[in-house]
Amino acid sequence: MAYEGNLSASVPEWLNKGDNAWQMTAATLVGLQSVPGLVILYGSVVKKKWAVNSAFMALYAFAAVVLCWVIWAYKMSFGDKLLPFWGKAGPALGQKYLLKQAALPATTHYHKDGSVETAMITPYYPMATMVWFQGVFAAITVILLAGSLLGRMNIRAWMMFVPLWLTFCYTVGAFSLWGGGFLFHWGVMDYSGGYVIHLSSGIAGFTTAYWVGPRSKRDRERFPPNNVLLMLAGAGLLWLGWAGFNGGDPYAANTDSSMAVLNTNICAATSLLVWTWLDVIFFKKPSVIGAVQGMITGLVCITPAAGLVQGWAAIVMGILSGSVPWFTMMILHKRWTLLHHIDDTLGVFHTHAVAGYLGGILTGIFAEPQLSSLFLPVTNSRGAVYGGSGGIQVLKQMAGGAFIIGWNAVVTSIICLVVRLVLPLRMPEEELLIGDDAVHGEEAYALWGDGEKYDSTKHGLYSDDTHHQWPSSGATQVV
Question: pTM of this prediction?
Fold first, then answer.
């Protein structure tokens, strides 16, 4: 505990400098996943004419969420209880509030007889650290959602959509599962956001893609990345930033945090390898974009379980996260009319909704009792492989995921309909044809085609599409 004999107004007796330093570092790592991580990834994985627009959608969302978060949304997610699934709105801006010891007031968990089973969550650092840490999680959720909408959503409609979705969708999931809502007290396990962040962004992105409508026919037929190497740089920031994403959720620099970081990397590496092997087996080529998709599904799948499972379980989860979303994206997507009809630009439904729900269910299977006791409010929680109440835990995980799916599908649809009353959700056809120059008056590169050297036999005066000797294969058919 803190530093008796070295106290001052800025170092209260409850402050643990190590926990505070790690929590702020973890928050910064998560922030770097968005800016510049996803800004770079989005700007490079899309067709050249959409590079600026895609990157800016991510950058704008980050800034908008930060402001909305401190004015009203933080307390809706982690404040006093208003409803079983929602906290009371209010600002998190005053010195008196931000400098006191962090606390999540609705998280005290009681036995049926009214006695306290688990005390309120009160980390050893100031509320300002907690507000910022949770704020970057909220921001990346909205940015992940944007991956379903790249290449055609009206930027003005996006500006209106972001605060509405944060307020009426994200805060509900965050409070229900983390802030002391009904799923938190029921014992649904979501260590670091498999449901709150990934399942919600995947379902909301897919739903919004339905209401916005598809990209232009030309873009849907061919949408090559404009810079694969830069995409890998963004993916690298995403992967290494996940140390803060999962390692920060014990709210302390403790043993469980270390376990979470190690499991995160084990699962991500396994998933990347499995996805790549499947691409080689079925498409004869190792797709670099496919490897990034596999990396992401591994990171997403382990997120609800990171500090709750053993290392061998992380490997099993990596095998499944590299194969199940691969199957839904590469096989099922092409055979199921609904999936094929809705234009989910980056396949966020598969990489986040499918992988997130899969991870949540697998958490209910593999959660180790001793690790669970370090983190969860409900004592004696365990996964199905450890017997006891584990079988019920799987059902809880499925039900908790179903609530997140239902809420996001319905409320996101309502938000889209409301925005559509004011602004068109989809860009006009002339903007869809031209891209960044029409929307922003700016272009990413002063190059021909999609980043190639000028060739008059292929480009003429200008061509937005390029032609290659070999057809695309693997994940490039989706992205």
Answer: 0.91
